[in-house]
Amino acid sequence: MLMDPLLYLGGLVVLFLLWIKVKGLDYVIVHQRWIFVCLFLLPLSVIFDVYYYLRAWLIFKMCSAPKQHDQRVRNIQRQVREWRKEGGKTHMCTGRPGWLTVSLRVGKYKKTNKNIMINMMDILEVDTQRQVVRVEPLVNMGQITALLNSLGWTLPVLPELDDLTVGGLVMGTGIESSSHIYGLFQHICVAFELVLADGSLVRCTENSDLFHAVPWSCGTLGFLVAAEIKIVPARLWVRLQYEPIRGLENICRRFSEASEDKNNTFVEGLQYSLDEAVIMTGTMTDTAEPDKINRIGLHYKPWFFKHVERYLSENKKAVEYIPLRHYYHRHTRSIFWELQDIIPFGNHPVFRWLFGWMVPPKISLLKLTQGETIRQLYEQHHVVQDMLVPMKHIQTAIARFHQDIHVYPLWLCPFVLPPGRGMVHPKGEEAELYVDIGAYGEPRVKHFQAKASCRQLEQFVREVHGFQMLYADVYMERSEFWEMFDGTLYHRLRKELGCQDAFPEVYDKICKAARH
């Protein structure tokens, strides 16, 4: 009797393989990608997660990370000095494969630059007296929440997706719904340790020019080998209030009010159309009303953006109590709302109950297996952009997003931007409230052209003294790029530290106009 279902399953596998042979693997990956994702990438993603979680837990418990860290730093210094002895004929970059990064951009420079191997993915120390955690650059947000929350601590700004690394968030940037109080990820860092172009190791703090130049530099001033980040006491729950709003003017006014209210630990908006949004405000607490608890991180729960949309359709305010770690990673299972384009039935209750525990597939594996055809389709018919604009221009900005790309939902996340001397700071000498408008999905505007439409948005963002996150496709010319970003300190330090022959300029590393 046991053989019957096994024979049936074996027959299905044989038929599936024959179908792939007839249609071709490229056809299946492009037109029926969910099959490939569900059968191969989801199980592989689970194996990846289990391996890295157990590895991080064992290393931290055995306290072997600090000793290994010093040895790994010396190995990086040795590689840099060898590059110098060989004449430094090409620029250097990290040896981490481009497909392992969360960014959708394909880093072609990896093939021509000298690859420096940096295998540093350990949490080195949690210092509750100084209230800092010291970590290596490849430590990700999933690792940090798993450890810190178990110790009763958390990061003041903990960017959303599990796989985002400290190195990427320091060298690029990061944001979360607490950023209206604490600023961007760079603003909760207290020290960076870097290996410079001459192979020397330096530790820089807030008093150093290098400390302010590193964020947004994308690894073009040195190799990050450790960072010290502030930590704050954690609570068990987030009391989250959902407030549906209609009318663009009302949405912008209510969102601005909530963002200015420092009694709100968390502020976030999901905009479902030009005139419909849900504004969420939250605070941390150790107590919860039992009948209002919602453990949204459980595998069988609806995707968060779909759950939020229900309050819009019901047109009512509501309050829920969400476990802190579940809240931090509320958009992880659906990769915000990107997974609905990859697994169209992914939010169906049956799929969630049976396979939701394997979701999401690793973004790195999606990149590795996408192929040139899918990459080009995504580039021409898909938008992944985060634009940071002053809060006073939020209404105009949302209208421009609607006009130029027409992608919904939009993610609205406020943040305070303090004055500074790095690449990103407000125009004046005082802190200013900004909003991150995130657009992820297929544009529904007629005759969408990726380059032309994104350049229109980039121009608008420059005009209002905003900024574009550099993980996405950037279409600006060099002069436009340095009009958006302040390169004064960055260029001076590149010259002083000998970076010009050692690392590409940030524009040449990330902008499409330079890479093609």
Produce a short descriptive summary:
By secondary structure, the chain is of the alpha+beta class. It has helices at residues 3-23, 25-31, 33-62, 65-85, 141-150, 166-171, 179-182, 209-213, 248-260, 304-314, 324-328, 339-342, 349-355, 363-369, 371-381, 394-404, 450-463, 478-484, 488-496, 506-510, 512-515; strands at 92-94, 114-116, 123-127, 132-135, 153-154, 189-195, 201-205, 223-230, 232-233, 237-246, 266-273, 276-285, 318-323, 383-390, 410-417, 432-441, 467-468.
Low-confidence residue ranges? none
The appropriate CATH architecture of the largest domain is 2-Layer Sandwich
What value does the Rg take, in angstroms?
Answer: 23 Å
With strands numbered from the N-terminus, the spatial order across the biggest sheet is 13-10-12-11-15-16-14-17
CATH topology of the largest domain: Uridine Diphospho-n-acetylenolpyruvylglucosamine Reductase, domain 3
Biggest beta sheet summary: 8 strands, antiparallel
Approximately what portion of the residues adopt beta-strand conformation?
15-25%
* Percent in helix: 40-55%
Structural class: alpha+beta
**Terminal Cα separation, in Å?**
61 Å
Question: How many DSSP helices?
Answer: 21
EC number: 1.3.1.72
InterPro entries: Diminuto-like, FAD-bd_PCMH, FAD-bd_PCMH-like_sf, FAD-bd_PCMH_sub2, Oxid_FAD_bind_N
Family: Belongs to the FAD-binding oxidoreductase/transferase type 4 family.
Organism: Salmo trutta
Report on the structure:
Keywords: Cholesterol metabolism, Endoplasmic reticulum, FAD, Flavoprotein, Golgi apparatus, Lipid biosynthesis, Lipid metabolism, Membrane, NADP, Oxidoreductase, Signal, Steroid metabolism, Sterol metabolism, Transmembrane, Transmembrane helix. By secondary structure, this protein is of the alpha+beta class. It folds into three domains: 65-233, 2-Layer Sandwich (Uridine Diphospho-n-acetylenolpyruvylglucosamine Reductase, domain 3); 237-372, no CATH class; 379-514, no CATH class. It has 21 helices and 17 strands. Strand 6 (189-195) and strand 7 (201-205) form a beta hairpin. The longest helix has 30 residues, at 33-62.
